[in-house]
Amino acid sequence: MSDILIITSYFPPETGAASNRIFHLANGLEQHHFNVSVITPLPNYPKGKIFDAYKGKFRHTSTENNIKIHRLWIYASNSKNKILRLFAMLSYSFSLIWFFISNKIPNKVIVQSPPLLVAFTCMFFLRRKKRKLILNVSDLWPIAGLELGAFKKNFSYRILERIEYFNYKKADLVLGQSNEILKHVMSLCPSKNVFLYRNFPDFNPPTIEEAVSNEKIKVVYAGLLGIAQGIYKLCEHLDYSNIEFHIYGAGAEKEKIEAFISKNPNLPITYHGEISRELLHKELLKYDLTIIPLLNRIYGSVPSKIFEYARLGLPMVYFGGGEGETVIKSYNLGWAAESSNYKDLNSVLNKIKKEDLTITSKTIIQKTALQHFNFNKQLNELIVIV
């Protein structure tokens, strides 16, 4: 049985794509007879506060599903203040360094990136000839930060670029969730070993159900209500003549969205709050269509929702451009609207009819997902090279 350590900034009971992705990876490796351990901060995402069950703890170690989980101290914060956010990342890095010094580290380590600084800490302190460092890149930073408007091309940005290059250079293998990520890594480190590791889900596919009959198409968004997703702006710009809009999740824009709904009671928008992933899957089956938006096109980004919703048999309207749009079109998973073009988005939505959203069409989408977005097949291919 081979020992392997996964270092991540997100892990259950935290919710979200990053947490689910690493959980499935850890669980999959354990089922393939790896002795898996995980290092992660004390749970705090997305609210930026330590969960009640872990408050007052400096460190918590437990064994769950035969996986040993080390939860380390972090200064939890989701503040918009850049200094506080930087300190939060550095606090976790300090906890990691302390852990590395006082514990034996396996010779196979998977490091999640971003955050860049956390990944840098791992790549710097864990490098040694006998150890294999595997960098799992889910988003391209600092490029994504630049496209989101969080960074400017200045001295600080150039430092982040050097950190990014260092991380790629020191990795023995780079996993990327998109072809754009792998292309970028290869542009910086041409001889680097890379592997396309999509964020495929691993759950039993449900039986497709007919959505509750309604004159309007029931459109749903479920996920993080953050700035990058732009759900508040979506509420402002949607044409509701053909649709009703349902929202699930939590995040920075939650209060703004609730206030908008309160001020516009005539609009068919319903906010359902945040619910567990298992319950959400059941709820999503009630809807005709889901929308996957990004406020701005982000190079390298392919939202994991695409693969999760396809497994549920839920048709999609993709509104983010890039490789995600290519996946939607290539596998006939729904429709795509031009990124950031709300006029085009409304045009696409107005052309969709109830007869386009039948059980038959949903079943075809689910079958496509089961054939092409296979978690276990992908994991088996990864294990060969790990």
From TrEMBL:
<protein>
    <submittedName>
        <fullName>Glycosyltransferase family 4 protein</fullName>
    </submittedName>
</protein>
<feature type="domain" description="Glycosyltransferase subfamily 4-like N-terminal">
    <location>
        <begin position="17"/>
        <end position="184"/>
    </location>
</feature>
<keyword id="KW-0812">Transmembrane</keyword>
<dbReference type="Pfam" id="PF00534">
    <property type="entry name" value="Glycos_transf_1"/>
</dbReference>
<dbReference type="InterPro" id="IPR028098">
    <property type="entry name" value="Glyco_trans_4-like_N"/>
</dbReference>
<feature type="domain" description="Glycosyl transferase family 1">
    <location>
        <begin position="214"/>
        <end position="359"/>
    </location>
</feature>
<feature type="transmembrane region" description="Helical">
    <location>
        <begin position="109"/>
        <end position="126"/>
    </location>
</feature>
<keyword id="KW-1133">Transmembrane helix</keyword>
<dbReference type="InterPro" id="IPR001296">
    <property type="entry name" value="Glyco_trans_1"/>
</dbReference>
<feature type="transmembrane region" description="Helical">
    <location>
        <begin position="83"/>
        <end position="103"/>
    </location>
</feature>
<dbReference type="Pfam" id="PF13579">
    <property type="entry name" value="Glyco_trans_4_4"/>
</dbReference>
<keyword id="KW-0472">Membrane</keyword>
<dbReference type="InterPro" id="IPR050194">
    <property type="entry name" value="Glycosyltransferase_grp1"/>
</dbReference>
